[in-house]
Amino acid sequence: MPDTSVRIGSLVLKNPVLAASGTFGFGGDYARLYDVSRLGGIVSKAITLRPRAGNPPPRLWETPCGLLNSIGLENPGLEAFLAEELPRMRELGTAVIVNVWGEDPEEYGELVSRLSLPGVDAIELNLSCPNVRGKGLVGENPEATARVVAVCRRATDKDLWVKFPPQGEVLQAARAAQQAGATAISAANTYRGLAIELETGRPVFANAIGGLSGPAIKPLSLRLVYELSQVVSLPVIGSGGIVSWQDAVEFIMAGAHAVQVGTGNFIDPLCAPKLVRGLRKFLVQRGLGSWELIRGCAHRGGISGAA
Question: Which residues pair with 161 in a beta bridge?
Fold first, then answer.
């Protein structure tokens, strides 16, 4: 049987399929539908130091081949997460990655310090929320990115994944994150988008701008992973429009070590385990022993021996 595992920093995932932050909650709801231990890992919804109510409704707006969201980082806050959600996540039988968002570098540092606990396998720094006014897109700026990552690196010895927006000086910011001590790059969050309600002539969201996800953004996200994997030596975790195992293979061929499934979980709640099965079958049918044989092959002229 092929080895489906992947290594990201000090963490070995049983397979490269992760549930992305924001569409999987803390895993409990999906655990009622299937055994989520089949997944490589679960990335929690974003956790902030204090509870956040999020943006007023509506928060979701369907678009052709995609979904706009304006959730606004709704979450119970760090204290409630540590007391209630983290213990349940630890029992799900797969890697636990906690996504965090802070108001400033010091707040990020406090969050990662207090999350440096057994059972937290990695921490994902959310530098890319598109629907929070003012401070949601730190990852567009290399200097701001470096400040946050450096503070967090001093605060913990846990693996630090940095989740970037898809726009701005992302390639330069990823290099800055690597120099500051990041373990992996998550690429990318949603694209900033807008929808207008025809009857009123106003933006559908109270915050006006939302984040576009779903199949519509896949070619854009795939391009970003392709470029990032050439400018950093860190593992790159791809996300954006992945709804099938074929999508996931494309991201791996572009250079990704793992993939995150977001809106795909809304389209089909069984999307992620279907990806796991499809990826294993792909390796078996191709006679490939591991992902190393095809990772980044798009940079090397394709699969060796292919016509």
Answer: 124, 184
